[in-house]
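Much of our argument rests on the idea that a fold can be written as discrete symbols. In the encoding step, the backbone of a single protein was reduced to a row of integers, each denoting a local shape. This step matters because it turns folding into a mapping between discrete strings. For completeness, the protein is quoted in full, as a sequence line and a line of structure tokens:
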Amino acid sequence: MSNNLMKRSVNGFKKVRDFLHFSEVKFLAEVSNINWNKIISLPNMNNDKLFSKLYNKLNKVVNTHVPFKIVSKRRARQLSEPWITKGIRKSINIKNSLYHSNVKDQYRLDRNKISTLIRLSKKQYFHNYFQWNIFSMKKTWAGISELINRRRKKMKKIPALKDESSGRLIYDQKELPSILNKHFASCGAALAAKLPHSEHHFSEFLVNNPKTFYLVK
């Protein structure tokens, strides 16, 4: 989602545009009433200053009609999904207002209907997506990754490893794989050597155990 619809707040939550009370007619009316010629004709205006003036003026109107509100990360992620249409968002807002108004029966009914609509909308979205990108293997795999919700994990670089033979920290990236190989190749035997010695064979503990079963060749 573009930055003008979503922003990250300081506390880790998200700021998203609230379209609950948005009126396209009122918004366009206010934009039309702005005297753009007056702004353009201001003296000593270069391109950068002019763009800044126009942007700030329009952004002020947008913030009035579609203000930002803080929501949880889960809620922000839901709103950013392409299959959550404008109509579904409006229905979600109505459902939430029913919940806060303590109209529980109607809320549960609307919640179930919206869940069904979201599933159908998601199904239709991916059907169209794969149809449109049937000849693009890259976009097809991107769609599959999004469909199964596979998130890319950020790979952290290992800065150094301790060489068990010398006890020194090794920072040379070329030597780190060898240190890892030595560790995992020897850790099994090292752990086995630490096990206490027993005078009994493991099979002795299986005698008279009704839950024991054997695989016969």
Q: What stands out?
A: The helical segments are 24-32, 36-40, 47-65, 73-80, 86-100, 104-132, 137-147, 176-193. The chain is about 55% helix and 5% strand. The beta strands are 6-8, 14-17, 68-71, 161-162, 169-170. Residues 104-132 form the longest helix (29 residues).
